[in-house]
User: Fold this.
Amino acid sequence: MSTDTTQNEARTGLAQGAVLAEMLERPVVVEARRINKTFRIPLSKVDSLKERITRPTAKTSYRELRALNEISFDIHQGEFFGIVGRNGSGKSSLLKILASIYRPDQGTVRVAGRLAPFIEMGVGFNPELTARDNVVFNGVLMGKSLRSARRGLDEILEFSELTEFADLKLKNYSSGMMVRLAFSVMAQADGDVMLIDEVLAVGDASFAQKCMDVFQEKRAAGKTIILVTHDMSTVQAFCHRAMLIHDGEMKYLGNPEEAALGYYRLNFDPASFTNSLPNSESGLVVARQLNARLIEAKVLDSAGNSLASIEQGQPINLRVKLEAARRLESPKVTINVRQLDGPVIFGFERDLQATVDDGDHITLAGQIDHRLLAGQYVVECWVRSDRNDKVMGLQVMKLAHFDVRGATGAEGLVSVDSDIEAVIRRRSVDE
Amino acid sequence: MSSAAEPTGLPDLGPLKPIPGPSPLGGGLKRAAELLYLIGLTDFKKVYFNTTLGYAWSLARPLMLFGVLLVVFTQVFRIGSEVAHYPVLLLFNIVLFGFFQEATTMAVGSIVSHESVVRKTQFPRLVIPLSTVFTSLLNLGLNLIVAFIFILAFGVSPTWTWLLFPFTLVLLIVITCAVAMIVSALYPRFRDLAIIWAVFSTILFYATPILYPINVVPDTLQQILLLNPLSSLFEEMRRYVIDPSAPSAVEVAGGWLALLPAIAIYIGTCIFAVWIFRREAPTIAEQL
Assistant:
């Protein structure tokens, strides 16, 4: 529910501008000035004394990797601040510097209030200890005092609905219970500034959604949140401002939409979309995103048998059920049939022209008459939803493989009807 | 919340302060102490509450070593019979040296084995080696109770000098912490240290008056043994607790001056420990 409000708020640019202006009036709670960090990566890792003793003169040669270059920014109280960039851009190094894990070569970071970093779920969880002990330890690790960690214990256990297993050792927990516990620790954390790494939001989408709900609550409670991610939809939905880092340089700081666009420009990899988009509007940036989850995909022959191999000329029955993984504004679903490792042979698009809410189902069912010749084929499904007039969120998923059996000597991929006749006119007739 | 000046109701977070950064004690002493307590206790529980015989094992180890050495040194070599209260002296020494050896050996790989907290949270680095000392200290406490029961049972009568024992014990704990800091800080860079330290601590076991009192050793060797700061410590502890008539470390050395090298080594080790740990701590997460 709260998610909707934010998205609507983000959509009305004027309201957002006002919110942002007010935000920038607030006191600065995180101040980073001219942060530099260079990693020295040994070209051959000298790890043992023996090597040092046997070749004492051998200088280890290093490759210098400039991870961060003159990064400065201010984050204001209550702000939801995104740090985006692709892998290896330096965003994780920046996060670790903010979290006091790495030391910058130069530059300073100053913070007002207590900073609680969440770089991984359940850091320091010890399988040999009970849930109770683990929660307390984790709380202290995340910056609480021992007293307040103990005081918050019951609340965390209650939130995780694991109170009755509080004295069970963690090694006897199922992985699901473990995640629930780790998540509850995070959800109940009370840092003034929360530093969150994207790894928290991986896993299944419903879990990611739960994480987002918690972020949303924290945001509403006036906490300052710094989120490091490469999921642009999160940035666009939640962040007041975002910073784009590329090769250790700050490329952009400001409007999250712009930061996301910049990110897509850096990331757009034409090779991953070998075949042109259904209707490739110019200037539209394509972003891969999770739009829907596949619940079932059945590709059957006309007799209702699951389709692995069919006779040439037999129609295909398609039954696909999808569940929306986010709110989709008039999504389009495209079914494509392509040659295995080859081009798309045909496809058709269904425009839903309605808003699909998170969790709604979309089913596609019907018969495809086709004229594929003998060969191996793949059915795939593209779910696209335009985020705005600049960005298209696209998801491609594979549905099935099948073979077509046939023995016609025709070349190519499809048979066609034609009335081309072959006529022989002999020279002797002319004469 | 009630503040009218702040319509948003945001709490006042106070002034901007520099972040602690990765350091030996970043985040404040209180936090470090709490983490030390939690980790030390956790490791202690892990060892002794997860095995069927639990604490019995911790006691069994020094007791078995004690049993073997007692037979060897009273029945085979017979030095033991010339020393007052030899069996309990042996047990007492083994328990104390066991603490030093256990703490430092566990400290070697400690930072690497706590990798996740070092790399993923703001964690005061010093807590890690100190927690191994703390765990061993809990163990030592339990073992000393048993040792003192034996001491009394073997007819050693308590004297006022027992009150001096805690002071020497503190000196032992300090040097143990210093060595733990050194080995833990260097191990991420030099992985050979685990093996080197295993050998070195065994040498130290024989180079410290544990199996023998220092006054039975030939003079030249005695001078060498006295370079080892642990030698004086163990001699003093013996004198305070078991045999008040035993010569003090100063008497054995023949004056304070002769003890100066050992004192210098002791202090030097502590200073080096602080220096190396402060140097390594900020970059340790990057070395893992």
About this structure: Chain A is about 25% helix and 35% strand.
